[in-house]
Structure formats: structure tokens, C-alpha cells
Write the C-alpha cells for this entry.
Amino acid sequence: MLVSECMDRKLPLHRQILVHAHLFMCRYCNRFKKQLLLLRNAAGLEDIHGEEFGHSHTLSEDARERIKQAMRDLSPNPGPDSLNT
Amino acid sequence: MTKKQAEIHSQIENPESWVDLYGDFLYHFTLSRIKDPSIAEDLVQETFLAALKARKNFRGRSSARTWLIAILKHKLVDYIRKRVREQTSDKVESMFNAAANDPADTSFNDVGDWRVRPSKWAIDPMKLYEQKEFMDVLYQCLGELPERQAEAFMLREIDGFSTEEICKVLSISATNSWVMLYRARMWLRRCLENNWLNTES
């Protein structure tokens, strides 16, 4: 749990030392820590590559307009930030 | 205000531009996870509407695009969770019924040694964006996590919230938040090992 916890806060010094010492000796806990960091990086990814999946990657004009209209409907008060043209 | 901050502020204050600036990017991201174009469109619409309601809370810590993609990821996981509950998933072994096998409780023996040692993952962390199978299984596993744990994990890892911010949103103590994050990470790690490593080999 300390390996996970040190990803979320700065541990007290004596615990930091314990964790570092253990990670130096235990390859499985080291592997575990790398996997948790991988999960963090993966969750934060914004870009995706990969094989084509046979669909257009862009919104159709209809979908685009539908979404804009739904946003206008949510903004009932015309004003500087209004979506009404 | 710096030039970059002014640019971000301008983008957030101008919702008319969002669909044209970011719509295709969000749609592409969603479609890569959810193969159905009409559901992908719905999720993108839900994202923009949620962002419109929440734009006063945008603090400018990230770009508008990053902020929108974070909202989209929450919507995506909610959709996957709903789909998992409605149907039996034959691709991802469900962890919901495995309370007795919660990896947070069962991974270590009485003296703190690993019961089942973490397997080696054959994945290049520098090329995560190419690992479509891995990312598919990750989002599926997020949808399988108990909702509160998934929420804590996403607030931390997708939204970049601090412990204090997570505690405020979820009304929990700091200690509870660290325990929830630990349990979430253990579940996700086990879920990935069970459902992705196996298909890789």
C-alpha cells in the first residue's frame, strides 16, 4: 500500500526510506510500482493511434449541428457567451 | 495573465468554437473505444453539454482540450459501466462478484510476501498510445471497478486532483482516499493481467 500511497502524497521521511530500501531489494514490488505508473500514464493519454476501424474519424455535419443546437438549448439567456448566432 | 492563459481563457469563454475546434478529436477518441458511431456522437454531445455547465469551474490548469478529454473519459467509463451491468461481458472477466478475491486483500500473505507475484508486462511504456488492445481492456476494467473506486481513480489520474480535492468531492478522509486509490489500482492491475496479458500470449 505504501507504494501506492507515495504516488498520492509525500510520505513521512522514515517511510520514504523504508519504501526506497524495499524497492531496491524486491524486484516484484519494483515491477508492481512500474505497473502502477503505467496505469497512471495510460489513464492520462489523450492521443490514440492504431489500426483503422472502418469509420470516418470526423463528426458529420449533421452531428456537428445537432450538438451545437443542444448547446444552444442549454444556454437559454442570449448574451456575449450565447451560442445563438 | 500570460499569453497562453489568455488563449485558454478565450477558448473556454467561447463555447461556440468548441465543437469545431475539438469535436473531431473527441469523436475520434471515443470511436477508438466504442465502435458505434452514433453512441460516440452521443458521448461527445454529453461531454460538450457537461463542459458548458461546468465551465465556470475550469481553473486553467490544463488546456481546453485536456479538460474536455477528461470529461469525455468520465462519460466513457460511465457508459462502459452501464453496458457491463446490462450485459454479460464475454471479453472481460467480471470482478464484481469477486469480493472474496479482492486483490487488495488477497495479494499478500500474513508476512507481507506476494501470494501471486506480479507478472512481467510486455509493453513499452513509451508507446502506450499504440497499444490499442491494452487501452481497450483498461477502459473496460475501469467500467468494472466499483463506482466510488473508479471515481477516485479518475479524479486522481485523469483529472489530476490532489488528495485534498478528492476528499472534498467524495466527502471522505485523506486516509480513505489513499485506501480507495490503492484498492482501485490493485483491481485494475489484476484485471489487466487477467484480461490483457492472457490475450497477448
User: Anything to note?
Assistant: The CA atoms of residues 23 and 31 of chain A lie 9 Å apart. Chain A has a mean pLDDT of 80. The radius of gyration of chain A is 24 Å. Residues 2-43 of chain A form one domain.
